[in-house]
Queue: 3 jobs
Job 1
Amino acid sequence: SVLRKNKEALGWIIEDLKGITPAYCMHKIKMEDEYKPVVQPQRRLNPGMNEVVRKEINKLLADGMIYPISDSPWDGECALTTED
């Protein structure tokens, strides 16, 4: 199959994705003006998970995979899952 022949081109872990610039691949969600943000309370995480999330976010920031936006009223919940 094409995927098996070119598996080195795929990113299996975040470290595999270094070097991909946002100029090459960036996703955008276009919002319509009539939709406004809805404020919901932030969900609390237990201290252990909070530290895991903090480390992962710092890693993604350092790798350039995400970047902070301070002037947007839109925000997203953090959804945690386990790897099985």
Note: Residues 7-32+43-68 form one domain.
Job 2
Amino acid sequence: MEPIAIDTLLTVFNIMVASPGSNIQLNSQDIDVSSLMRFGGDDNLQQTCEIQEISNLSGINDVVEFQTKANKQLEDIISDIKAINTHISTTNSNLCSQRKVGELAVKLPQLPRPFSVRCDNNQYGGDWLLIAHRYVSTVLFRSDLGGDSENNGIGEFHGEYFIGFDKLRAITDSQMCELLIVENDERQKQWYDHYQTVAFGANNKVKLLGKHSTNRGDNSVGLLVHAEAINKKLKLYLYPNTEIKIYLRKTSLNEPPIFKAA
């Protein structure tokens, strides 16, 4: 007698579950299946078989057990996704807000997946979103990042970190943001540069920039020079012996950006 194909065998079991009888036909031969028993509902099915041509039923039982476990894992995954979506849907659309400090999940329409951001307060106010942090004696930013690290980000919130230009563009495109750059040199002298509005283009450079304020002595340079300076500071490896922190924050200012890249 020819071997019974597995798909034929599974078809037989489907027939038996739907309308069990005493005989079925396989490969043109009648086979007695009266020894096959069903107990309880579809969710608790037990079967025994004494068909001579089927020497081992354990393989099918393993398949059924595996599929049951897989279905349970899929249900757990779906449940987790629903929980994540619920969390994201309740996330404040203003990103960091209400002077909360810590990590926050953010979902923006420009990006396919949610991502985490770090919210901070400092002497310049609250609700700042950390986009970059470099130590005086940097380990992470010793050379140009380039490639995936520049676009996707690198590092950790509790250490040296850069959010990546993909997220940076998505954030500044989704709402008007102000920019704060805080620098501490090796003598612990602190400088800040604040821009009322900022946005970044596809070339990973500043495309919009608003009014500038600083505690530096000379503030007479134009915003084009500032835009170039920001582009360089976001490289993070160009300024030795300097700790740099760069922040964004949603701004309610209605003033249009003063600088616009050509």
Note: The chain has two domains: 6-88, 102-260.
Job 3
Amino acid sequence: MRNRHVKQSIPSLLSEIRAKLALCNNDISKLGPPCDTNFQQFTLINGIATKYSRMAENSLNGNYRGLNKSDMFARKLIRDGLDKFCTTLQAEGPVKPFVTCTAEAKLILTDDGMTWSEKLMKDPTYGWIRQVIGSFRGTEFPGDLNPLVVDFLWRKQTTGWRAIAEDALAEAESIVERVNEALFQIVCSDDDLRVNLRDWLHADFQKASVDAAKELEPAVLNTHDSLEAYYELARWRFTDNAATQVIERHQLGPDGPLRLFSPQYVSEKLYGEQNEDALSNLVGENPNKAQKRLGLDSERRSLEESMKRLQAFKML
């Protein structure tokens, strides 16, 4: 009679144990794979790097399949930023706005008894150029132009280029940082490990920004020194030298933040006996987490054993 009652209660007991076991397994899963040994630690970090590297490469190549957040679309975001840079440089680059063909035509066509040259001098930019030419008069022959005039005018007209380019570079760095954060959220669900990884990579990530800033400096100066007759040509050249190449080479290139963290990088930094301490410090479990894992493993084994006994008793 008693055995029959026990057998009748077995299904509900099994259901309760299964529920507890599922909860226990879920808690263990949240802890991630164990990282007690150097091999386990290296396997974990190398797996994260492999997944990150693959997603980052797709993000940079414009292959957004599998990337479910717009913050991961690196190439699109960078191109949008460069489009903004070009527009800003065109609109705000010259200190004195150049006169368009349409505006010149309107000035010349007015019937006010003035010659066409007198009409053009009414424009502030033409007036400014005339004033600079007058202030630089020296020993040149009549009709000639003091060579310093062109240098002065171009340097004045491009005064704002540096600040605009620096803003574009800062925007690119911000985009790369956002993409990095979004990718790491996907490839590393362990909050503590993710923080450790990003801290570990920070110095090499920062190097890309420092190198880009260093390259921007001569790019600005060299563009000044090699400016020729046409501002538009010079502007496009500057856009390419000071922004596109700098950003592409340092922020998106092989040593940039999005391509730096890879299996090869992990192997170079963490593989081998000489790097065991560094690997353990980066990936090794803290004592509280390790203790929690031991407790959950013990609970899981106890639940699994209870389930086996109940199932065996049910068969009697």
Note: The chain is about 75% helix and 0% strand.
